[in-house]
Amino acid sequence: MDHNAPVVNDKHRIRTAQLDLPPRLLLGPGPSNYSNRVRQALSTNEIGHLDPRFIDIMNETQELLRYVWQTDHAFTIPVSGTGSAAMEASLANLVEPGDVVLIGVNGYFGERLCDMASRYGADVRRLEKGWGEVFTTDEIGEAIEFHRPSILGLIHAETATGALQPMDRIGKLCREFNCLLLLDTVTSLGGVPVTLDRWHVDVAYSGGQKCISCPPGIAPLTLGPRALEKLNRRKTKVANWYLDMSLLSKYWGPERTYHHTAPVNMVFALREALRIIAEEGLEDRWERHSRNATALWEGLEEIGVSPYVSEEWRLPSLTTAIVPEGVDAKAVAAYLLEHFNIEIAGAFGPLAGKVWRIGLMGHNSRHENVVLLLAALKEAMDNA
Predict the structure, then answer these.
(1) Same domain for 329 and 357?
(2) Which residue among 99, 199, 354, 371 sits deepest, i.e. has the most Cβ atoms within 10 Å of its Cβ?
(3) How far apart are CA 310 and CA 314, in angstroms?
(4) 51-70 pLDDT, tens digit each
(5) How many domains does the chain have?
(6) Is 125 among the domain residues?
(7) Is 252 a residue whose pLDDT tops 70?
(8) pLDDT tens across 106-132, in order?
């Protein structure tokens, strides 16, 4: 026995049970459930992040992301992190101190964009609307002309409110004023039409765990030629080393230069989720989300629950439903979880306690889930 060996402190050496989790149906704002095919891909034998076979898989994943985003952007990758990491990457790489950044704020995630941009030294300007509303093209155009930003940031699908921002003509306006268009597609990509090249979007990001139906922890990011030009002519280094796309481009590009150890099995899972989207086809996938959302909205009205957002800009993948007078929002959500293993979520900010957030995303956007949820929700409101 080595008397010089350190004495081990067992204070934190707890005995825990093997994981045994309930089969939750995740019908909140994310994450969503994913298919057995994605689960199988996630558990596939790992290989090295510079293995020739993995490089093939990287290329396939990039190409499938271009399909889902409807873009030819050469720089299209999955970021090692959740959607917020891709959000931060978009700003860390494109914002230099003093840049005027105009952000549309009509919910929580517009606020987050403002916070992140300010941390990189941006001169943040806010274009504001009420939670649940969207911006008109004229409002955006007037704001761009007044503020002359280098970047306009918009939330395509505001997860806090369930509002879907129309994108017609906004990209062209940005080009008229030499402004980059940055778009948050976290809750829209893979569930509703997203056509980056048609909309002239310069930079976009998303998350794997919503309509793509992949586990959280990997996040698509794409930079178009105008965004790459701004990145390449920076006068200062990107302040975030881990998310510096000028470095990561050498790993995801033809050089395959080591940057960090990629989450290999998460890339497997994302690739499989994207394969499923490609097999279904975007048109059919968008139509499925629209059809099931319409059935949900009609069913909610029948049990005395109204959607919060006006139908013209209502998001098919996530619905905010007004909590009826006299109903305890938290008690109903707890009842659904306890009695049906169904998760829905409340809201925050000005909508806290006033709405439920119900997600029908990707794999979970199914008619049987709509029928089950409506019946369970009615029982919960009667008994909670």
Answers:
(1) yes
(2) 199
(3) 6
(4) 999 999 999 999 999 999 99
(5) 2
(6) yes
(7) yes
(8) 999 999 999 999 999 999 999 999 999
